[in-house]
Q: What sequence folds into this?
């Protein structure tokens, strides 16, 4: 626990998260629906592509009703830069329709309710709960999963299991911030396939210093 605290203090200073990613910029004036949609757009793409797709989409449609009413081809064109745009367009329309029919166009602030909507997984649900509603949850994406295991904080095979394991060892004050911090750290230094150990700010605390690829 003390080692985790020490590492998180270092990374918190090295990677302040508020302004560096699309989702984190949205936390300043949280709109639960936009955070949800941008998170869905961010899956399997770079942040710069999420930013482009989000801006194009919200200039035309920024509510469940507007997205649900868009023609599929129009929606696909707006979010093209996010990649996997055909599948994402179907997901966005479906999620929007469920929010309209079941939740009066509001995004639920309950994890089980969010997970009950097809297309919303644990990471997306936790991003919404943490970033839009300020709840203490741990959003685990590939960066959090790989880095937490690489540092030896947990030893798990899936992000879902990593989330549960982190809840037992990570100080709660870092729950809402760990995703943003480790995403930036993972993109710049602790890269999944080939980490830059020689310039890592926590190299003296890492049990796997000098690895050249993820295992």
A:
């Amino acid at each position: 626990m003390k080692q985790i605290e020490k590492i998180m203090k270092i990374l918190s200073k090295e990677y302040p998260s508020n302004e560096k990613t699309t989702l984190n910029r949205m936390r300043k004036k949280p709109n639960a629906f936009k955070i949800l949609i941008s998170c869905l757009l961010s899956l399997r793409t770079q942040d710069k592509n999420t930013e482009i797709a989000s801006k194009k989409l919200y200039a035309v449609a920024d509510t469940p009703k507007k997205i649900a009413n868009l023609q599929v081809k129009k929606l696909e064109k707006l979010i093209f830069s996010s990649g996997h745009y055909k599948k994402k367009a179907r997901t966005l329309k479906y999620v929007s329709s469920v929010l309209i029919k079941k939740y009066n166009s509001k995004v639920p602030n309950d994890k089980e309710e969010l997970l009950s909507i097809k297309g919303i997984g644990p990471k997306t649900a936790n991003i919404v709960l943490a970033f839009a509603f300020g709840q203490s949850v741990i959003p685990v994406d590939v960066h959090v999963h790989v880095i937490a295991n690489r540092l030896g904080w947990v030893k798990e095979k899936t992000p879902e299991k990593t989330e549960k394991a982190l809840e037992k060892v990570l100080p709660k004050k870092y729950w809402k911030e760990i995703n943003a911090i480790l995403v930036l750290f993972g993109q710049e230094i602790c890269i999944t396939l080939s980490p830059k150990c020689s310039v890592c700010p926590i190299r003296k605390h890492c049990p796997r210093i000098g690895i050249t690829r993820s295992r």
